[in-house]
């Protein structure tokens, strides 16, 4: 994918997967640790290492499985997180670029921090992700709405079993906590969350169909 110059004031679909398509989330605590990174690395002033500050006993400590992401209070964020989905071997985010280069800074912190945590916990070394993250510019409001559906319901799109993925879907339709996302840009266009839910499910069939066609086309080109 050609390198994209990320512009301030724009929305981007950001994603990456594990090297060699390996799983990057092995248990519930890994999901929660990544969510905590989404919060604590998304600030103007660096926080240092989450692992060193709070997770030195993570390996083998079942008590930590109940931890939720800690809020950074009123600290100014680097980016606005619109929605997310964490699948076993990849993740999707929709981010708003508030200032120049802030998504790049945020993703570098997030990727490095999570890789260090993962490698320490699972006694491995080397890269965890398959190269740098990818980013697709969201060019219209219609694309933003459909991308939010694709990300919020990506577990279903990807055919992942329930309980093996984590997304912001319940934040959108059930006001679930912790609330990590800036949802108003999407939900503000619907009368209520139920209307967004209906829109999402009506769009899902087309999204799955397009994904299947793209996969078949890629396989045909590779044959």
Elements, N to C (H/E): EHHEEHEHHEHHH
Q: What fraction, in percent, of the residue positions are helical?
A: 40-55%
Query: Considering the protein shown, what is the CATH homologous superfamily?
Result: Transposase IS200-like
Quickly count the helices. Answer: 8
Amino- and carboxy-terminal Cα gap? 21 Å
Classify the secondary structure makeup into a structural class: alpha+beta
Oligomer: single chain
CATH topology: Alpha-Beta Plaits
Shape: globular
Strand content of the residues, in percent?
5-15%
Question: How many strand segments?
Answer: 5
> Which regions have little confidence, pLDDT < 50, spanning 5+ residues?
55-68
Radius of gyration equals: 17 Å
CATH class: Alpha Beta
Please give a structural write-up:
The protein has 223 residues and is an alpha+beta fold. The protein has a single domain (10-222), classed as Transposase IS200-like (Alpha-Beta Plaits). Helix content is 42%, strand content 14%. The chain has a five-stranded antiparallel beta sheet with strand order 4-1-3-2-5. A hairpin with a 2-residue loop joins strand 2 (79-87) and strand 3. The chain is globular.
Q: Any key phrases for this structure?
A:
223 residues; Alpha-Beta Plaits; five-stranded antiparallel β-sheet; 8 helices; 5 strands; 42% helix
